[in-house]
Design a protein that fits this description.
With 181 residues, the protein is an alpha/beta fold. The chain has four helices and nine strands, in the order H-E-H-E-H-E-E-E-H-E-E-E-E. The longest helix is centred in the first third of the chain and has 19 residues. The protein is globular, with a radius of gyration of 16 Å. The structure holds 1-O-pyrophosphono-5-O-phosphono-alpha-D-ribofuranose.
Length: 181
């Protein structure tokens, strides 16, 4: 408990839960217009996307399906192309489906690139990306973001699904963690 309290005191709010809620509603309106009648498959990348996914689908209000895939980044010491590990894949057919990837944050872009390669082999009709947060200054590979919530600076952020050492995913605001890079 003491350790948790120490960490909480190091946090400062970057984007409030009200700002997030308003932006999620705007993104939902855009996505609704583009996907109405297409029965899209929203594919969340675990663990980080679970909070965003649950808020977004309840604001979308159109017929859709959801799936989750679990990918994990290795430490920075690995070669970039080998850094992503598939922990849990998906078994549903994707042929002729409109897939919308739901991410909490895009950083180097390696997770999304890995997922594109994985999904392309399953021959969907379309693949697009919606991420709530983006750190473009950290990009290692090019990624096209189709729906973006907020650009964030190159600081260590936690909350709204994003963790530090598995902590702080539950925070409703997006917070900067002081002393981390
Ligand atoms: C984080 C985040 C993204 C990914 C972005 O996931 O949720 O999925 O890193 O980083 P990248 O653009 O550099 O690939 P992480 O691998 O930490 O797993 P988690 O979602 O379980 O926290």
């Amino acid at each position: 408990m003491l350790e948790g309290e120490t960490h909480l005191s190091q946090l400062s709010t970057l984007i409030t839960k009200e700002e997030i809620e308003n932006r999620v509603a705007e993104l939902a309106a855009e996505i609704r217009e583009d996907y109405l009648g297409k029965n899209p498959l929203l594919l969340g990348i675990l663990k980080g996307s679970f909070v965003f996914m649950s808020d977004l689908i309840r604001k979308l209000n159109i017929p859709l399906e959801i799936e989750f895939i679990r990918l994990s980044s290795y430490g920075a010491g690995k070669e970039p192309s080998n850094r992503i590990r598939l922990v849990h894949g998906i078994n549903v057919p994707l042929k002729d489906r409109h897939v919308l990837i739901i991410e909490d944050i895009v950083d180097t872009g390696l997770t999304v690139r890995y997922l594109h390669d994985y999904l392309n082999r399953k021959r969907p009709s379309s693949i697009k990306l919606c991420t709530l947060f983006d750190k473009p200054s950290r990009r290692v590979v090019d990624v096209t973001v189709d729906y973006l919530g907020f650009k964030v600076p190159d600081t260590f952020v936690v909350g709204y699904g994003i963790d530090f050492d598995e902590k702080f995913r539950y925070l409703p605001d997006l917070c900067i963690m002081e002393g981390q890079v």
